[in-house]
Amino acid sequence: MALVRILVDGYSLLHSWPELAPGRARHSAAARDELISTLSRYQDASGTPVTIFFDGSFPRSRGVTAEPGSSVEVIFSRAGQTADQMIERAAHRFAPYGEVLAVTDDVAERETVLSLGGLASSCWNFIQTIENALAEQAEDIKHHNRQERNRFHRRRHT
User: Fold this and answer.
1) Beta-carbon neighbour count of residue 150 at 10 Å?
2) Cα dist. 106→11, 20, 77, 90, 113 in Å?
3) Domain ranges of the chain
4) How far apart are CA 107 and CA 114, in angstroms?
5) Is the Cβ–Cβ distance between 127 and 17 less than 8 Å?
6) Of 3.40.50, 3.30.930, 2.40.10, 3.40.30, which CATH number belongs to 3-156?
7) CA 39 – CA 46 distance, rounded (Å)
8) 52 φ, ψ to 5°?
C-alpha cells in the first residue's frame, strides 16, 4: 500500500529538534510556526500530506486550523483529549486508503499505530528524513536554476 498521510505528534517532534527555532520555548507559537513551515516545505518535497497534532491548551486555537500560507493540516486537541488519541483515531480512519506514518517518540503510541496497520517513526529518524529531503530539493532547484540560466544565456547570444 502507498503512504497516504504522515501524522506528526507536534510537541514530540519539537522537543526532539532543538535546532528548529533555537532559543524558543518548545511550546511557543514561534516554535510551532517554524515546525509548520518546515513540514510544509517537506510536504511539498515529498508529495505526501502531513497532519500535525498538538495537545491543545490554547483556547482560541482548538480544533482544525488552516495556517496562513501553510498546506499542512494542523489540529489541536480539545479538553480531555490528547494528540496521541487523535493520531490513533486518524490512523484507524485512514487505514482503508493506505498506510499512514505516525511520527512520535512515544513508543506505546508507535506500537498502537503499528497494530492498526500503519507505520511508525521516531522523531530523530523523521528529522533525518526531512533534512535529507529538503537538502535534495534545494540541490534540485539549484541545478534547475543553473540549467535555466544557461539556456537563457544561450538564447541571448544566439
Assistant:
1) 10
2) 11, 20, 17, 16, 11
3) 3-156
4) 11
5) yes
6) 3.40.50
7) 10
8) -105, 130
Number of Cβ within 10 Å of residue 138's Cβ equals: 12
Note the pTM of the prediction, 2 decimals.
0.82
Distance CA 24, CA 114 (A): 33
Q: In the block, which residue shows the cell 517554524?
A: 34
Taking only the tens place, the pLDDT of each residue in 39-89 is 999 999 999 999 999 998 554 544 444 445 558 999 999 888 999 999 999
pLDDT over 60 at 132, yes or no = yes
Of 63, 36, 30, nearest in space to 52 by CA: 36
Cα–Cα distance for residue pair 158/156, rounded to 1 Å: 6
